[in-house]
Amino acid sequence: MTLDYGRAETGENSREGSDNASAEVRRKLGLKKGDLVAVVETENGVLITRQEVLAVEALDRIGQALRDKGISLEELIESGRDVRSELLQEKYGIHSDDTP
User: Fold this and answer.
1) Do the Cβ atoms of 48 and 38 come closer than 8 Å?
2) How many angstroms separate the CA atoms of 13 and 38, rounded?
3) By three-state DSSP, how is residue 15 classified?
4) Burial class (CB in 10 A: 0-12, 13-18, 19+), 38
5) Which residues pair with 38 in a beta bridge?
6) Cβ 20 vs Cβ 12: under 8 Å
7) 54, 38 in Cβ contact below 8 A?
8) Which residues, 6+ apart, have CB-to-CB distance to 28 below 8 Å?
9) By three-state DSSP, how is residue 82 classified?
10) Residues 17-55: pLDDT tens digits?
């Protein structure tokens, strides 16, 4: 969503730290009461977006970093299993073949 330049949307920041964005901005962002938003400071001001948009972008960057290193998602998951098995053995004396 892009707001027209030359037009400012304003809201109120309460003492509790919550923001009261205008109904038009909430509608354009598809926000409902209780939805989480991400507020990101940029060199030009702040960017307010739905929090899941920020999460998807972060996951895309992580995926690209893995691809750049030649690591597949399956390899990452398998290495996590290996590390988890090692931790179970070291901390609790549980062998991974003992778990269901």
Assistant:
1) yes
2) 15
3) coil
4) middle
5) 49
6) yes
7) yes
8) 1, 3
9) helix
10) 555 667 787 788 788 888 888 788 888 988 877 777 777
Beta carbons of 12 and 27 less than 8 angstroms apart: no
pTM beyond 0.70: no
Tokens 């290996």: give the residue.
82
Tokens of 13: 């920041």
Residue 39: beta bridge partners?
A: 48
Buried b (16+ CB within 10 A) or exposed e, 13-31: eeeeeeeebeeeebeebeb
**Alpha helices by DSSP H, the chain:** 23-29, 51-68, 73-92
Domain ranges of the chain: 1-69, 71-100
